[in-house]
Amino acid sequence: MAEITKESVTEGEKDESRFRKEKIKYTPEEEAKLERQHFWKVVDAFRYYRIHILEQVNRAKRQFWSLPQHHQVLLPGVLANLTCLSQCVERNQEILQAIVLNCLHMFENMAYGEEDDLRKVRPSSTFDMDKLKSTIKQFVRDWSEAGQAERESCYQPLIREIQRLFPSDQYDVSKVSVLVPGAGLGRLAWEIARLGYICQGNEWSFFMLFSSNFVLNRCDTVNSLTLYPWIHQFSNNKKSSDQTRPISFPDVNPQDLPLDSDFSMVAGDFLEVYTEPESWDCVATCFFIDTAHNVLDYVETIWKILKPGGVWVNLGPLLYHFENMANELSVELSYEDIREAIIKYGFHIEVERESVQTTYTENDRSMLKYVYDCVFFVARKPTHLYTNGQQDEQPHNSPSAAKSPR
């Protein structure tokens, strides 16, 4: 099982950001209150899903009924498809309700509250509902057979590089530590742990944490559960049946890890949780660095927490999450600028590919698809660090990670 621990869960995602927290100093009691409020706001979103999506389905019905009768006659399958959509919404809500019931005790400071509160279904913002719909699509990307091609293009380059850098015939991989910030639903971190490495995923979104906790710790039968991730997409469908097609998950048994595996997920803000210097052999980032308000904060933290000789493996685009959002710090740098800063920090770029094409939670039957032309690089923190003009000799990697000579 992947233990999910709480290190420094903030109340912030895009709408409640670290930038505002820095401007307003909260007492510990206020922080705890904000944290609980955000927790329950996400719970409310999971529970409001059915009402929200059925409103969209009912709107589509009203639009159909507003057509002239002779137009309605030309479309005999529309109402039947909308009825099917309503049924799919119910099935999705069953999964979401199971996720919520599983997460209510995830964090020690998240009390149930009054029993009446659990029976109430409170409205959620469009923003939160969009986050939830995006999370549902993450099940496709991370834990379904339909997401295999996307995982091959996104995760496998990182995994292959880790295996090349820390081969099992030269290292005791059970002592090589790999950190995966922005772990989402945890598949990349799980795959790395399955290879025998120490691996920890880090995530700060409660939407992702609720869902990853459910799939990693409560799912133990292959393809035993079903979601309908595309029912929210009313545009760019070639066939009506494309909108209601199911996906099964998980495509593997998440419990199927070696008995001695060291795999964990930590909840919290990457910059706040990971402050211990020289503590990781490898940091693997996938579609992550553009989630920063200031990407150089990420570069600085990765530099700090890597051991001398440690490596940073990255793949992703630069779709800055806070761009054009009011009252948010957002520094949108080109890859050229970021690359220069990485080198100035002291990293040595050992591998670099500036055109790795991949998708992200793609609906492969949609008439609209986005393809990201990603950057992939491997950057090493040198074994020889300079302090006060003196060259410090450091071991290439953690001595415990290397195998003894045969």
Keywords:
alpha/beta, 14 helices
Rg, nearest Å: 23 Å
Mean pLDDT: 89
Task: Provide the structure class.
Answer: alpha/beta
Strand order of the largest sheet: 1-6-3-2-7-8-10-9
Which H/E pattern describes the elements? EHHHHHHHHEHEHEHEEHEHEHEEEE
Tell me the total number of β-strands.
12
Main sheet, how many strands, which sense, barrel? 8 strands, mixed
Shape: globular
Beta content comes to 15-25%
Helix content: 40-55%
**What distance separates the N and C termini?**
34 Å
Low-confidence stretches: 6-23, 387-400
Q: Count the helices. How many?
A: 14
Overall description:
The protein is an alpha/beta fold and 406 residues long. 41% of the residues lie in helices and 18% in strands. The protein has 14 helices and 12 strands. It has helices spanning 18-23, 28-65, 69-72, 78-103, 115-119, 126-143, 148-154, 156-165, 187-194, 206-218, 240-243, 270-273, 295-305, 335-345, and strands spanning 3-8, 177-181, 198-203, 225-227, 247-249, 263-268, 280-286, 306-316, 348-358, 372-380, 384-387, 390-393. The strands form 3 sheets. An 8-stranded mixed β-sheet has the order 1-6-3-2-7-8-10-9, sandwiched between helices. β7 (280-286), α13 and β8 form a beta-alpha-beta unit. α2 packs antiparallel against α4, α6 (126-143) runs parallel beside α10 and α13 (295-305) packs parallel to α14.
